[in-house]
Write a structure and sequence with these properties.
Mean pLDDT: 94
Structural class: alpha+beta
CATH topology: Inorganic Pyrophosphatase
Largest sheet: 5 strands, mixed, barrel
Oligomer: single chain
Radius of gyration: 15 Å
Strand order of the largest sheet: 1-4-5-8-6
Strand content: 35-45%
Number of helices: 2
Order of helices and strands: EEEEEEEEHEH
Length: 173
């Protein structure tokens, strides 16, 4: 179990510290419970739906929804829940999310590449990815939220500089 106390979103060399919650290909949505210092099963996706890549968070950050910032992590194979993966930001899908009760809040999805990835190693920004892949990732978040009775409304896709500014703005004080 990783010790997340005092860990920030970046290491000493400027790499992104991504903590994997849900591995690529999983139907089980896992989430970190800081009060218990463990990962718990949050929900199960419908048959035929699974996470397209590892999904996790940045420790030491807090988004508008009160949770650490979300990160979709491009990597060759799935990594286990709780794994710390050093990565670099390649962009962000800037979006709003409407909860079941009608409350609207910002809920961006950062996209990063694992430093050790062979498949995605050359990718430096979202525009380096095929448009079809980006459309599929965005559709995943739309359908994932719709299944939970929420609306995920993407506004734009931005590059690594904007993504880094969003991370820096989210640092917990």
């Amino acid at each position: 179990m990783p010790n997340l106390q005092g860990m920030g979103p970046f290491d000493d060399e400027g790499h992104l510290n991504v903590i994997v919650e849900t591995p690529k290909g999983s139907r089980n949505k896992l989430s970190y419970d800081p009060e218990r210092d463990l990962f718990k099963l949050k929900k199960v996706l419908p048959t035929g739906a699974s996470f397209p890549f590892d999904f996790g968070f940045l420790p030491g950050t807090k988004g508008e929804d009160g949770d650490p910032l979300d990160v979709l992590l491009l990597l060759d194979e799935a990594t286990p829940t709780g794994c710390l993966v050093l990565a670099r930001l390649i962009g962000v899908i800037e979006a709003e999310q409407t909860e079941k009760g009608g409350k609207v809040e910002r809920n961006d999805r950062l996209i990063a590449v694992a430093e050790v990835s062979k498949t995605h190693g050359p990718v430096k920004e979202l525009s380096d990815l095929p448009k079809q892949l980006l459309d599929e990732i965005q559709h995943f978040f739309i359908s994932y939220n719709a299944e939970a009775g929420k609306e995920f409304k993407p506004h734009k896709r931005s590059g690594p500089e904007r993504a880094r500014k969003l991370v820096e703005r989210s640092l917990e004080s």
